[in-house]
Amino acid sequence: MPHTVPPAAWRMLALSVAAQAAGAMLVSTPAYLIPLLHLHRGLTLAEAGLFAAAPNFGTVFTLVLWGALADRYGERWVIAGGLTLTAGFALLAAVATGYPLLGAALLLGGAASVSSNAASGRVVAGWFPRSRRGLAMGIRQMAQPLGVAIAAVIVPPLAGHFGIPAPFVVAAVLTALLAAACAVGITDPPRPPATAEPAPNPYRGNGFLARIHVISALLVVPQFTLATFGLVWLITGPGWAPGVAGAVVAASQAVGALGRIAVGHLSDKVGSRVRVLRWVAVSGVVVMLALAAADALHWPVASGIVLIAAATVSVADNGLAFTSVAEAAGPGWSGKALGVQNTGQFLVAAAVGPGIGALVAAVGYPITFGLVALTPLASIPLVPPADQHAG
Q1: What are the tens digits of pLDDT across the range 51-79?
Q2: What is the CATH number of the domain that holds 270?
Q3: Which of 12, 205, 226, 276 sits most deeply, having the most CB atoms within 10 A of its CB?
Q4: Structural domain tally of the chain?
Q5: How far apart are CA 124 and CA 137, in angstroms?
Q6: Residue ranges of the chain with per-residue pLDDT less than 70
Q7: 165, 150, 213: which is closest to 346 by C-alpha?
């Protein structure tokens, strides 16, 4: 593909961002029900965290499958079909009677929503040339914090005024509309001519992809710790009002979305994804320790400021890692490789809800934040020395 970006590529990018943001909103909705479930419905923090983890746990079973379907049949119908299923499961969550059915609906909704994760990564990698791919993937990766930010703003007031079903109805409508838009507006990217020989397995011969997968899984821990418990921490720790706390969490996700674009563009400029990924991992250690210190010292204003910084850093790695995986895997394997990438991340994310919830109950937020800083620290020596490109 030439180094110029075709105009259609920007349309694919916009639809990819919107599709993934809608899925992220549904996946994030239970996290912003934690204050209601924990403070008003009597669930323990670990139990409420288990509901927050249910959509992420559902993704573990389908991410590689969605990626394989995108490799074989193309991205358009994988994204549109997955969003249609997501809308249906969101409606099921809205009408669920009892916590078991709600948990099942959330698990299935998460499994369906991630169709856009691996498939939209293929769309971006296929339509944008390598020289612009870091920026494009950074824009695409802003979808997740954008969806989280939308959930942070609308879920608490909707659930507070109209009950738990209300935010799920909104998610159902949004994903249904975007399913139709993606079915009409997405065009699968050009593919290389078919050959008799299958594409070589990029996992054989070196450990580059495996290292990126492990690094990303480690860096998910601070990201989902903050996304899941940031709101309830601001309310119960520094003592912020729920509305103000929700606005700060939304702001942190919005800034994080812009941060993904910035680090993607930076990786284009320096000509390396992994070099910038190492900088992000080091920064992750610093901001989590700063968050622990702000809470331990009872600095309410500083807590909000550091939370925004920590949330920004905690999501900055995703676009870099996704771009590295797509470039190293090549067009014949990128769907499956991105599915494996997402599976590892969401498997860890599913453990964060109940695991970090129990840890907070046992040792409190400051020590928990300090322990979470160990995960980006562990990722630093795993960062490969150089990028890898298929073919």
Answers
A1: 788 887 888 788 778 878 887 787 888 89
A2: 1.20.1250.20
A3: 226
A4: 1
A5: 7
A6: 1-3, 39-40, 42, 118, 191-199, 390-391
A7: 213
